[in-house]
Amino acid sequence: MAQTHAFALNNPALLRQHSFIAGRWGADGEAINQGVLDVYNPATSELITSVTQGNITQAIEAASAVQAGFAKTTATERAAFLLRWHQLVLANLSDLAQILTAEQGKPLSEAEAEIRYAASFIEWFSGEALRVQGDVLASTVPGQRLLNLKQPVGVVGAITPWNFPAAMVTRKLAPAFAAGCAVVLKPSELTPLTALALAFLAEQAGCHPGVLNVVCHQDAALVGQQLCTHPAVAKITFTGSTSVGKKLMQQASAGLKRLSLELGGNAAAIVFADADLDQAVTAIMAAKFRNAGQTCICVNRILVAAAIAEEFNARLEQAMRTLQVGPGFEPNHQIGPLISPQAVAKVESLVQSAIAEGAVLRYRGQVPSEQSGRLSSLSSSSTLFYPPTLLTHIKPTMAISQQEIFGPVAAVQTFSSDLEALALANDVNTGLAGYLFTRDPARIWHFSEQLQVGMLGINASAISQAHIPFGGVKESGFGREGSSYGISEYLQIKHLCWG
Ligand code: ADP
C-alpha cells in the first residue's frame, strides 16, 4: 500500500491498516476486507496510509456473540482491564499524538493534551465500574422484598467524529466496557487511525476478542443505518452534527433503541461591562481557537456589552495577531488546517455572507503558502489553512450567528441590557455550552438559571474534564458523557419484586 508520512513512531505497530473485528485485524480474514479507505494528512494533503474497510454485520455479530459472557465478568476484572489500557495509552502518548496530528491536523501540543484527556476517561470509568450499585427498597407488603438491579444495556453501536479522534472514542468505550457492554465502533472516515491505535492498545491490555470491534468505512450512512436497525444492537451513542443525529434517531426508532446524542452547539460568550477583560479575552481565545475553532463547545458568538465593545475588540485583535497558522508538527503553530475543502468553503461562505450583510472585517491573519497535489484537484481553494479572522458588527440574523462556524473566526456582536443579552444567547436551536464573564454574583445566578445550555463556563473556558457531565439541551442532543452520570447511559434498571 502506498504510504508517505513524515512522522517517526517509537512503536510502528500502532499505525494499523485494517479494521478490527472479532479480535482479528482484517488481513487475517478475507471477509473483513471490503475495499480500502485512504487517510490523508490535511496539512500536506499527502496519503498517510490506507485501511481495509470492515463488514458491519460481521462486527455486530461478533459483539453479540460475546455480549452475555462479557456482562458476566466481574466489575474488578473490567476495572483492571481499563486501568491496563489507561497505562498503555499514557505509555504510548507521543506516538498516539503524532498519529492524531497526522490525520487530523491539530498542533502536536493539542494532540498530546487530547490523548491525556482521552486517557482520563478510561481511568475515570475504571473507577466507575466498581461503583455500579442497585437498590433495596422499603417494602409495603409483609414478606415482600423489592430490589433494583443495574445491568448492561447490551451491544453498543458508537459513531465518533473527526475533531477529537481519541477523546470521543474513549468517552464512549470506557463507560460501555465499565458497564459490561460490547461495542461496535465506527470512527470518522477522515480519522480512523487514532481509533485503530487505541483498539490495538485495548487488545494489548487484554480486551477479549469481540468485545471491541472497529469498522472503518467510507459509507458512513450505510454503516449508521445498519447499526441503527440491526436487532442485536441495543444502544447507539453518537457525537457529530445535529442533522446526522436526527437521522440516526429516526432510524433507531423502528427498534426503539436507546440513544445518546452529543450534537452541534452554538456557544455564546457573554462579556459584561464589569468583566475582567484580560480574563475574558484569554478564556475566549482558548475557547474560540482550540482545534482551529473545530469543537462543538467553541465560542461561536461573542456578545459584548456595547459600552466596552471597542476596548474588548482591540484586546481580542491584539491577542489574535499572535496566532501562527501552519502544520501541527511545527511547534510554533497554534492553528492547524481545517479538516477538508468543504470545511474551508463553508467557513469562507459564512464570512463572506456576513460581510455582505454589514459585518466589518477587523482583522484577517496569514496562512502558509499553497498546498499542492490532491488538494488542488479537489477544491477551488489551494489550502486547508484558514486565517484567524475577526468580524465585528455581527447581527443575530446572520447565518454566521445561527450556524456553527467550525473555523478560526471570531464574530462579535453587542448588547445594551442584560435582558437583550439573555434573549440573544438563547435565540438558537441548540444548547450545548455557554460562557459568562462578569463579577456580579446576582447576574451569575440569574444567567446560570436562565441560559439554555448543558454546560456553562463562568469566568472560565476549560469546562471539559472526565468527571463533569458533558452534554446539551435542545437540538444539541441528550444524554451525558463523563462524570458519575456517564455510565448510566450504558445501564438499564431491572426491578425485582420478591414475594
Ligand atoms: P461533522 O459535521 O462534525 O463532520 P458528521 O455528523 O457528519 O459531523 O460526522 C460525525 C460522524 O458521523 C462521523 O463518523 C461520520 O462518518 C458519521 N456520519 C456521517 N453521516 C452519517 C450518516 N448518514 N449516518 C451515520 N453516520 C454518519
Core attributes:
single chain, 499 residues, alpha/beta, seven-stranded mixed sheet, six-stranded mixed sheet, 15 helices, 22 strands, globular, binds adenosine-5'-diphosphate
Topology (SSEs and partners):
Layout: E1 20-21, E2 24-25, E3 36-40, E4 47-52, H1 56-72, H2 75-91, H3 93-104, H4 108-129, E5 135-137, E6 145-152, E7 155-159, H5 167-179, E8 183-186, H6 192-204, E9 212-214, H7 220-229, E10 233-239, H8 242-253, E11 258-262, E12 267-271, H9 277-289, E13 299-305, H10 309-320, H11 341-356, E14 360-364, H12 374-378, E15 389-392, H13 399-402, E16 409-415, H14 418-426, E17 430-431, E18 433-437, H15 441-450, E19 455-458, E20 473-474, E21 477-478, E22 491-498
Parallel strand pairs: 7-8, 7-10, 8-9, 10-11, 12-13, 12-18, 13-16, 15-16, 18-19
Antiparallel strand pairs: 1-2, 3-4, 5-6, 6-22, 11-21, 14-15, 17-20
Helix pairs in contact: 2-4, 2-5, 2-6, 3-4, 3-6, 4-5, 7-8, 9-10
The structure holds adenosine-5'-diphosphate.
